[in-house]
Amino acid sequence: MAVVLLPLLLSACSNRGANPHEVVYWNIFNDDVSGKAVQAVVDSFNKQNPDLHVKMVPVPPNISNSNVTTLITAVRGGTGPDVYFLDRFTVNQYASIGLLEDLNPWVSKEKEKLADQFQPFAWNEVLMQGHPYALPLNADARALFYNKSVLRDAGIDPEILDPKNGPITIDELKALATKINKVGPDGNYERLGMVPYIGEASHTTWGMIYGAKFFDDRSCKITPTEPAMLNAMNMVYDWVKELNPSKVATFVDSYVSNPSMTPAQDPFMNGKLGFKIDGDWALASIAKYKPNLDYGVTYLPVPDKSKAPATWSGGFSLVIPKNAKNPDGAYRFMRYFTGPEGQKIFAQGFGSMPTLKSLMNDKTLFSGKRAFFSELLNYSHSRVPLPVSATLWDELTSAQEKVQYNIGTPEEALQSVYRRVQPQLEQYCPLK
């Protein structure tokens, strides 16, 4: 993706001068579903604001540090955008290195207090030392998706997974998944009950399920080796070991991460997976590519029956990078996008939830399975915003990759996270 988009990016930035009537917006959502949702917001804004034109430029996603490098280079060279889409939990890190404009000069002039209009977890994620460096856009939650047809084929009654029955345990999920597994004539899997590390089955998801905190505020230390995180990664390690790591990797390469695959060839939609952990945005993809799919959503599995349901919520935000040519126009566009009209257009098209309190009671946004995801917010946690958030995510991802391939031990992988990230955090301690 980066190879394809970079020439477009450089072309859009080259020889760019200040134009009070143009806002250059770098957009990370470029697939058929999310891209159209963003385009609808941009078109609506441009129509209502004839004195200002938003120019949308496609760029690669930015959850990891590596994908923000292009922005950093452009900002330093004076060719960055006016508006950028940033994963909200990374705002603190990129604000701390001076990449983002402090929005307080604009926010302080608002007639109503913006902080009171957004869900607290979303607003808190955009703050650094009490100042907002982004405006929150969407919220999300993770759940366990199950393909009812696949379950029935394996002799499993899907009704046992109805949310009214509460969450199942991880051991129960593994037992159900094992019944679904099917090996082909070549000895490789042609169907799996679940792969415990694809989709949203991430280090953070499993960590949250087991009760991991990720950071200790009193000591100003990250806690990747805390018992909850160790238990989570040991569970993934053992699960994959039982399946055979290399055979699972072959399955993933064939049916999940194959670059030639289209969204319509998703293994869950096409009966190759019985279960997957995913977010509410997946509902829109299923509706588009497999509208007749017989599936359900339920709570994430829990370690044991004594545990309450758990999930976690993230989302994106809009920021003004340093050296923006039109920061005032950028803020106008951001306020529209993250305001009631913009959030509603985006939520309807993308399938995620809004962060504005005023939209949480809008029934048009929470029909069908979406209603379940809105209920999940009652059990939801959020990531701790740190000056090393993106770095921590990257290192936890590297650790999980070692775990899923059974390289070394989970404890060794998580110890490496601490050694690589904690020294970078020290310069900011104590956090204010």
Automatic annotation (TrEMBL):
Gene Ontology CC terms, in alphabetical order: ATP-binding cassette (ABC) transporter complex, substrate-binding subunit-containing
Question: Does the record bear Aminoacyl-tRNA synthetase in its keywords?
Answer: no
Question: Which Pfam families does the record match to this protein?
Answer: SBP_bac_1
Q: Which UniProt keywords apply?
A: Signal, Transport
What would you give as a GO molecular function for this chain, any one?
Answer: maltose binding
Annotated GO biological processes are: maltodextrin transmembrane transport; maltose transport; transmembrane transport
InterPro entries reported for this sequence: SBP (IPR006059), SBP_1_CS (IPR006061)
Q: Entry's Gene3D superfamilies?
A: Periplasmic binding protein-like II
Question: CDD domains under this entry?
Answer: PBP2_UgpB
Family statement drawn from the similarity comment of this UniProt entry: Belongs to the bacterial solute-binding protein 1 family.
The name of this protein is Sugar ABC transporter substrate-binding protein
Q: Which organism is it from?
A: Thermosporothrix sp. COM3
